[in-house]
Amino acid sequence: MKLRPLLTGLVAGLLLANAPRTTWCGETGLALKDRVALCKAATALVEVAQGSRVQGTGSAFCVHEAGLFVTNRHVLLTRRPRSPRDDMRKIPLVKRATLVLSPSEAAQQEVKAEVLRVSDDFDLALLRAEGMDRVFSRLTLGSVDDLMETAEVLAFGFPFGKALAVNRDSYPSISVNAGRITSLRRKEGVLDKIQVDVVLNPGNSGGPVLDAQGKVIGVVVSGIVGMGVNFAIPVSKVRRFLSRPEILFTPPPLKQATQHLPVEFRARVVSLLSPRAPMILELILETGDSGRHRYDMTLQDGVHRVIATPVPRAKGPLVVRLTATYSDGEVNGDVEDRCFRIGERQVKLSEIRSLKLGAPLKAELHSGDTLRGAVVDLGVVPIAVGGQWLRCKLDRAREIDVVRPEEVDAVTFTIVARSAGKEAGRLTASVYIEGVAREPVYPAMAQGRFLRPSRSATPTSYLQMVSSKGDWIGQGQTYSYDGAQLQVRRNSRGVTVMVDGWHADFGAPMG
Fold it and tell me: Mind giving me the DSSP string for 154-214?
């Protein structure tokens, strides 16, 4: 017989099942009424969709009052397996799902949830409810140490998804089924699966299995439909899956005008299991060639905080690269930024892209503006050339081209959590600085520079080609780079590729 995940898909017909037990045989533990109420409040229906089409449903339960829910990895598949031979590990997963809390009740809520992490080996996933400033009801993880065959258990979930809803296009009430442990399936002496005779069906996947104390001892994962043979992932595996703490961090918005000003960074570390020692957080800021800046965060009211400057100001005066063309040659070198006037306007060398000093005079700025008028106060300027200083009369040149230092267009934030001196987890995110001028397309392409496509309301898809070179296609242009030029790291939705100071994020196609 083939084991099938207990996840709803296309249901061909109704399955009849034995009526659940109406009494609880445990002599000690939490009262049955309290166990049921506790688990109903902490269990949610999971709805997975691709676009506007619902792909399937499953169950999940809360393990932390901040809104962290555990479910099965296979619940998050972008499509259902086409055959028993279809490897579910190769099917892509959704990045977000919908959690339905208290379905069919007056307090029903639909909450978007982000996928934080998954485990292929354990078939588990961790979701975080988004945009909810509330304390969630949660369940406590139990232990497998005292489990034994014939012990009574309760399973909670949503079999058949919406099919059991009283009203069409509504959500069903939660199902609570009682049963017993029929086998403790071990692999090389270690508990691998818990077999139960609880009545379970597609849609129960990801739901909790409780003991007499009202604690989670397993997660529904698979079964043989209609045979009374169903399986749960033991809580020992859930504990291993949740052993790494979750760092919750939203970087502050960054703008060009305020990038050099101090701002408060806040982060929360959620220890899903009781930590042996307090968590200490460190903020690391990276801004291209300026190196790393480390800051210790202070815990206050449950939130780790630190005030830091996203982009520290460069030490010393700004230096620009200048090419001055004369009738008998040209000079290339570095010049400290300085002010002069064109007509009635005062400008800086760093603002100039090209200055033609013939008649008529024309100055093109990096901002795209064009100025005309007499040049005043340019005169003799020291230029560093090959370790020497030359004094050049710039107002005698025919043309001056200025290349200013690259502006920092993104800041990378890394939060590192440590416990008892050992790293327990880290989170990395990059944020672009709003308002930073971008290089024009054609000069950058001529120099072989990577171009980050400009922001657009039009959905854009990116493809990574498997070859000796990295090929990326975006907005109708193709750019190729040798592997040695690329730095690749994972982010929450895919990978970030860094080329010559530019960043590009690659993930699931959009649109």
Answer: EEEE-TTGGGG-SSTTSPPPPEEEEEEEEEEEEETTEEEEEEE-----TT-TT-EEE-TTS
Contacts of 269 (CB under 8 A, 6+ apart): 245, 246, 247, 248, 279, 281, 304, 417, 425
Q: How far is CA 12 from CA 9, 45, 50, 100, 239, in A?
A: 9, 21, 22, 24, 36
Tally of CB atoms within 10 A around 221: 29
Task: DSSP letter for 74, please.
Answer: G
Q: CA dist 177 to 17, 99, 110, Å?
A: 11, 21, 24
pLDDT tens digits for range 51-70: 778 888 999 999 999 899 99
- Do 142 and 155 touch, CB atoms closer than 8 A? no
CA distances from residue 358 to 100, 282, 346 in whole angstroms, order as listed: 71, 56, 19
Alpha helices in 428-495 (DSSP H): 441-446
Across 17-39, average pLDDT: 63
Give the separation between CA 328 and CA 325, rounded to whole angstroms. 8
- CATH 2.40.10.120 residue window(s) in the chain: 4-241
pLDDT score of 287: 81
Record the tokens describing residue 83, joined without a space: 């055959």
Candidates 429, 436, 447; CA nearest to 408 is: 436
What does the block give as tokens for 262?
Answer: 């101090």
Which of 151-160, 162-171, 304-313, 415-424 has the highest average model confidence (pLDDT)?
A: 151-160
Q: Read off the amino acid at residue 210.
A: L
Q: How many CA atoms lie within 13 A of 374 on its CB side?
A: 2
Q: Is 221 in contact with 183 (CB distance < 8 Å)?
A: no
The CATH number assigned to the domain with range 4-241 reads: 2.40.10.120
Quote the CA–CA distance of 143 and 141 in Å, as a whole number.
7
Sign (positive/negative) of CA torsion 166, 172, 174, 176? Answer: positive
Place of tokens 């990574």: 464
| CA atoms within 13 A of residue 297's CA, in its CB half-sphere | 27
